[in-house]
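Hi R.,

Here's the chain you asked about this morning:
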Amino acid sequence: MAATQDDMAGPDGARAPQGRTRWSVVTSILGLPALVVFTFLLMMAAWVLVPDGS
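And here is the predicted structure, written out as tokens:
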């Protein structure tokens, strides 16, 4: 009996293509700095636009 590609896959049935990175890794590496920058800009906008009450 010959092994098929599905038989050689991992426990969840998914494998990363050879020679390529998973998109989730790229997204997590690029997404974290983007989230930090977006949060910083949002806080600065709130600081500038919201009256301080004095």
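One quick note: Residues 22-49 form one domain.

Cheers,
M.
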